[in-house]
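Weekly modeling sync, notes
Attendees: S.R. (lead), two postdocs, one rotation student

Agenda item 3: backlog of single-chain predictions. S.R. asked that every request posted to the team notebook include the full sequence so nobody has to chase files. The rotation student volunteered to paste the first one in as an example of the format we agreed on. Action items at the bottom.

Example entry:
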Amino acid sequence: MSKKDLGLLILILVVGAVVTAINPRFLSAINLANTSNLVALFGILSIGQAFVIITGGIELSVGSVIALLGTLFIDFIAVREVSWPLAFVLILVLGAVIGFVHGWLITRLKLQPFVVTLCGLLIYRGVARFYTADGTAGFAFGQNFPTLEFLTAGRSYGLPNSFIALIVIAIVMWVVLHRSVFGRYLYAIGKNEEAAKYSGIRTGRVIIAAYVICGVLTALSAIYFAMYTRSISPASHGQFYELYAIAAAVLGGFSLRGGEGSLVGAVLGTVLLQELQNLVNLLGIPSSLNFAVMGGVILIGVLVDQQWGAFRARRRMLEASRRGVAGAPAE
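Predicted structure, as returned to the notebook:
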């Protein structure tokens, strides 16, 4: 665990202690279970976003993708009577296709990630609204899928299964990002894409792979959100979820310039965001301020990241100058 991760963990504990002192319901079993479930849903999303940010890119369409794929998943199993395992796989494949298309447009046609994913934000939500005729996708009265509901919304040993899934995904993605050649390529591209290209890294393929990973994890999150809400209005479902994912990644130490970040930090950033949301609810603060909290968190995270980067650059220059003075021959 890095110093940034440790500092974030301490901040989470301090905020939790303050909220508990003000309202002891924070530590109630039902509140902790609900919070951990939301941490899982947004945590899976944030991990996917982190893989894109590490390359210096950004994915603004995840909220709309959640609305579209969640709508399709419910329609597949509730209306078209597709078996849920097949529908599950189809949704993950669609997520991978969306990620591949974004990565291809960015690397092959040299479009800016902001432009590509902003267009995706508009397109996917528009398609979802058209697909439902601006209606709502949901389950009919009495429709049940016991196994699916247990895996997505059930609990094991008191823990939400979604939270267990987050832990498994985080471990796998941590190995991929921090202990694999592919992960080193991602960091190299984020630091300097041109240098990475000249060193022999196929930067285009690596970036496409990052967007595919983000698309698959977003699709998985869409399924969990669909089973959590059990009813989707495409006009609003998943709205601004990209902000949660970006804020969690930035809080976790992922630089928007690329090349920096810790997966543990992204998960801890998600925990902190949901803790702040819980604080807003428990303290009776108007829910309309939720987005103000998100905006403030993102701004503070970017400012801290910028100042930390400047501080480290100054420290490196100072150390280099000291070594130069120490190594200079005496006259």
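Discussion: group reviewed the output briefly. The chain has one domain: 3-319.
Action items: rotation student to repeat for the remaining queue; S.R. to check formatting next week.
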